[in-house]
Write a structure and sequence with these properties.
The protein is α/β, with parallel strands linked by helices and about 300 residues long. It has helices at about 15-20, 45-55, 70-75, 90-95, 115-120, 160-180, 210-220, 285-290, and strands at about 1-5, 25-30, 35, 40-45, 60, 80, 100-105, 110-115, 125-135, 145-150, 195, 200-205, 225-230, 235-245, 255-260, 260-265, 270-280, 285. Helix 5 (about 115-120) packs antiparallel against helix 7.
Length: about 300
């Protein structure tokens, strides 16, 4: 059985490597190299780098729907996709007799579409997971094959949760392909689902409850990030947790900013400690280190965003 693997970011690398240990991957499909850094150096995707390290041929069409002749020439039996980044047309799906199977980072039918990991955290979910589904022409609407779940910790950021789910996804897709090879496939139709939008850099609204503020900060970390402004100081927020709120502190007020207590800001309900941040023009650091700089003092007020 010959496979094609389609993926692009680091999230997909564990799945590629796990499959390569067990099956014949005839080609890898990934996005074209992208310019990185100030000098715009063309850089391969993490999946491309992993494929080349294993000697697997790599295909990088700019627009797959307009140029899939090289993919068709592989004559593979099955394709696995994992955060590839391009929509597959029915013509592409029809190339593979055993189907196209997707590693999706949510418990479908919830959080179809872009940014399911970030949206699960921002949405206050306590659990998420990975679904292996048979891809159809819709947006993550195909029949489901395997599920795996794990809890979302109060300390999880999108970055840490992505790493956990990438490992779970690799385990599930290996099991799925093995079952497909043996003809042991039982599919489940999806019910009504939710579609999640892409995430963008977002201002923190401290009038919201502390749990929502913490979830927003963690869900957008390490990118594209939530940010907050106090006077002329703008800070990118990388991590946060909910803490008790002293009586009488209005939303947005700096309750504490010291090497001992860190940076604590009052919210509409409760307070958050912004445990990791990056001041404009500075380095990413712990809040206790930031407090040493004396840039914020107790009683200062974070501006509320204009929405």
């Amino acid at each position: 059985m010959k496979l094609v693997f389609a993926g692009t970011p680091a999230f997909a690398v564990p799945s590629l490597e796990a499959l390569a240990e067990k099956f014949d991957i005839a080609a890898v499909l990934t996005q074209p190299d992208k310019p990185q850094g100030r000098k715009g150096v063309l850089t391969p995707s993490p999946v491309k780098a992993a494929a080349l390290a294993r000697g697997i041929p790599v295909l990088q069409p700019e627009k797959l729907k307009a140029d899939f002749s090289a993919l068709a020439a592989v004559r593979a039996d099955l394709m696995v996709t994992c955060a590839y980044g391009q929509i597959l047309t029915q013509e592409v799906l029809d190339l593979f007799p055993l189907g196209v199977w997707n590693v999706h980072a949510s418990l479908l039918p919830a959080y179809r579409g872009a940014a399911p990991i970030a949206r699960a955290i921002i949405g206050g979910e306590r659990e998420t997971g990975v679904t292996i589904m048979k891809t159809d022409a819709g947006l993550d609407t195909g029949d489901m094959f395997l599920h795996g779940s794990l809890p979302i910790a109060e300390t999880d950021t999108c970055g840490t949760l992505t790493e956990k789910l990438s490992v779970l996804g690799a385990k599930l897709i290996v099991e799925a392909v093995a079952r497909i090879a043996r003809g042991e496939v039982v599919l489940e139709k999806q019910g009504e689902g939710s579609v999640c939008r892409k995430v963008a850099r977002t201002p923190v609204d401290f009038t919201r409850p502390a749990a929502e503020v913490s979830a927003l900060i963690r869900g957008l970390s390490p990118a594209p990030l939530a940010y907050a402004v106090c006077g002329g100081l703008s800070v990118n927020c990388y991590n946060a947790c909910v803490v008790p709120l002293p009586e009488g502190a209005p939303a947005g007020m700096v309750v504490a900013c010291s090497p001992k207590q860190g940076l604590i800001v009052a919210c509409g309900e409760g307070a958050v400690r912004i445990t990791e941040l990056q001041p404009a023009g500075g380095k990413r650091m712990a809040d206790t280190a930031f407090a040493n700089g004396g840039k914020l003092r107790e009683g200062a007020r974070f501006d509320q965003p204009v929405l």
